[in-house]
UniProtKB/TrEMBL annotation:
InterPro entries: Alkaline_phosphatase_core_sf, Phosphodiest/P_Trfase. One of its GO terms (molecular function) is hydrolase activity. The chain crosses the membrane at residues 437-458. The keyword Membrane applies. Gene3D superfamilies: 3.30.1360.180, Alkaline Phosphatase, subunit A. It comes from the Eukaryota. Keywords: Membrane, Signal, Transmembrane, Transmembrane helix. It comes from Adineta steineri. This is Uncharacterized protein. Residues 1-22 form the signal peptide.
Length: 503
């Protein structure tokens, strides 16, 4: 008996022990943060996939969303535009206003070799690349960003770097970047990334050298298309990526053909000893130390056909390119396809394609594709701005949205979470609301509305009669009802309509 009791209590004890040792291990795997891969093909014009019949790019739209084009920000050049994509800020706000920048406060110049210093990227506290926002988000300990070659990658920005990164290397092929980024995505959950960011230098270089419409461009684009094919294959062969990874493929700007005689030498028009000039061939910031020379230089430049010149305070609002010390006293911009040779530029190096022009010009617009679990499928969507990409990525990554110059409302139409509201959807919504309020409440509201209508009608009749018997009020009434007044607003076309017309 004693033995049996002992055995019985032993069994109970072991059950108890197994209970306390097992039950507290409530599987505490933290929820995996969302996965996003952002890829930029430098200088990928919005209409290349159609002009060159790019099979895999065309597949992307069936798989997700193709936005007709992106409305990018002025100036439409590489470093500024890429920083705009990852921060959601206009160039005047983030301060990367050109590929070659002069800062009078720092008394320093940034060129391709020196721009990797943090001072250029941390001009103000607003600049926070998405790779930093992702890592600062506190909802999970599993958020890490991996960045390859994106402008700004190899310097801390306002004190923060991505967890993993590789600097720009012109010899690195895109398939090597894919390999690296997916290795990072597939590491153990203690070290793996949930946000990957990749920059690729083509088709920009081919565009400059041979122009946007050329056999060489055809070849380069077929290469890009093959890379996209490889990307899709990698994702489809991995269940984890296939079900979880969202991908955005976009670009910084487009490309315009440069004809041989569509160029000028700046020193043929102004005395360049009176000023400092910084920029690229499409646009220059001119700093004039003696303010009395601004008007003289402006006057000389303003007579040149096919080029635009603005004093700083007159730069068009749509450029959002004014309120920063790094923007010159004078901005000189070629019309689409017209280039400028600076004094130290070797004019024997010809470009057959260029960018940097008015951001409203069609040929300056970049591509945008998105696919993965959050995106709608087989959708050709209406354009949005490059500053809106940051709020989109914040939403995908479930990050609390920061104040930027972008707007989530302008991008949500491409997301599954926001289905298109058809007319019948709206009716159903209305009916369900009525049900929520209860028929009695609705009945009361209708009665109150009816009473007010009747009351208003009676009141109007009474007041009309009194106006009728006092004829000196009549002209006032006629003036108020006159057809020409108040309707002028309808004649003012909206900005966005004008924008589409520019070539
Ligand atoms: C927690 O659950 C996940 C799947 O939901 C599983 O892969 C993992 O091994 C579990 N962890 C522990 C400690 O049981
Ligand atoms: C691009 O090249 C392919 C052959 O490589 C050719 O079939 C196609 O017509 C070319 N497209 C254009 C737009 O030149
Ligand atoms: C585009 O490419 C696809 C497949 O590569 C081919 O079937 C199709 O005929 C091409 N279309 C044009 C207009 O060249
Ligand atoms: C700016 O720096 C240059 C040398 O890089 C120097 O010659 C010049 O005096 C400096 N200007 C001011 C205002 O500090
Ligand atoms: C910037 O790049 C240059 C040349 O690539 C390098 O020598 C320098 O150390 C870099 N500076 C920083 C701050 O990373
Ligand atoms: C995340 O947590 C750290 C430390 O607890 C804190 O300093 C930081 O402000 C938090 N960041 C956000 C975005 O809440
Ligand atoms: C450029 O050359 C073409 C002919 O080659 C000519 O028609 C055009 O007027 C020239 N443009 C300028 C700005 O000189
Ligand atoms: C304006 O152009 C004239 C004639 O080409 C030149 O002599 C003068 O120096 C220029 N003025 C300035 C401020 O560059
Ligand atoms: C300009 O470039 C050409 C070749 O493109 C080269 O032969 C020449 O030496 C360069 N001139 C200067 C001043 O750098
Ligand atoms: C852009 O965003 C910054 C930071 O929120 C803000 O200070 C600035 O006023 C914005 N610019 C415009 C034109 O709204």
């Amino acid at each position: 008996m004693f033995n049996l009791k002992k055995i019985f209590s032993l069994i109970l004890l072991s059950i108890y022990i197994s209970f306390i040792s097992c039950s507290p291990i409530i599987n505490q795997t933290l929820s995996t943060p969302p996965l996003l891969l952002l890829i930029s093909f430098d200088g990928f014009r919005w209409d290349y996939p159609d002009l060159y019949n790019l099979t895999n790019f065309n597949l992307l739209m069936k798989r997700g969303v193709r936005v007709k084009h992106i409305k990018n920000s002025f100036a439409t050049v590489t470093f500024p535009s890429h920083f705009t994509i990852v921060t959601g800020l206009y160039e005047e706000t983030h301060g990367i206003v050109a590929n070659t920048i002069y800062d009078p406060q720092l008394n320093a110049t940034a060129t391709l070799d020196t721009i990797n210093d943090t001072k250029w990227w941390s001009q103000n506290p607003y600049s926070q690349p998405i790779w930093v926002s992702n890592q600062l988000s506190n909802d999970s300990n599993q958020r890490r960003s991996g960045v390859i070659a994106w402008p700004g990658v190899n310097t801390p920005i306002n004190g923060h770097r991505p967890s993993k990164y590789l600097p720009y290397d012109p010899t690195r092929k895109l398939d090597e970047s894919f390999q690296q980024i997916f290795d990072w995505f597939r590491e153990s959950d203690r070290t793996r990334i949930n946000l990957g960011v990749i920059y690729h230098n083509e088709p920009d270089e081919t565009g400059h050298e041979y122009g946007p419409i050329s056999n060489e461009m055809n070849k380069t684009l077929q290469d890009c298309d093959n890379y996209v094919g490889q990307l899709l294959q990698i994702i489809d062969n991995d269940e984890y990526l296939k079900t979880n990874l969202n991908v955005i493929i976009t670009s910084d700007h487009g490309m315009e053909e440069i004809k041989k005689n569509h160029t000028l030498k700046l020193k043929d028009y102004i005395d360049t000893s009176l000023c400092e000039v910084y920029g690229s061939r499409s646009f220059v910031n001119i700093f004039v130390p003696k303010k009395e020379n601004i008007e003289r230089i402006y006057k000389n430049l303003s007579v040149i056909p096919n080029y635009e010149v603005y004093k700083k305070s007159d730069i068009p609002n749509e450029y959002h390119y004014r309120s920063n010390v790094r923007i010159g006293d004078i901005l000189f911009v070629g019309k689409n396809g017209y280039d400028i040779y600076l004094p130290d530029d070797n004019s024997s190096t010809e470009l057959h394609g260029d960018h940097g022009y008015d951001n409203r010009a069609k040929s300056m617009h970049p591509i945008f594709y998105g696919f993965g679990p959050v995106f709608k499928e087989n959708m050709l969507a209406k354009p949005f701005r490059s500053v809106d990409i940051y709020p989109l990525m914040s939403y995908i990554l479930k990050i609390k949205e920061r104040q930027t110059n972008g707007s989530f409302d302008d991008v949500k139409h491409i997301l599954k979470d926001f289905p298109e509201e058809t007319f019948s959807d709206k009716i159903n919504l209305f009916i369900s609301k009525i049900k929520d309020w209860g028929f009695l409440t609705v009945g009361c509201i209708i009665i109150v509305i009816l009473i007010s209508i009747v009351y208003t009608a009676v009141a109007c009749r009474y007041s009309q009669r009194s106006i009728y018997v006092q004829p000196h009020y009549a002209p006032v009434r006629y003036r108020l009802l006159s057809h020409t007044e108040g309707s002028t607003n309808n004649l003012v076309a909206s900005d966005s309509e004008n924008e589409e017309e520019l070539q």
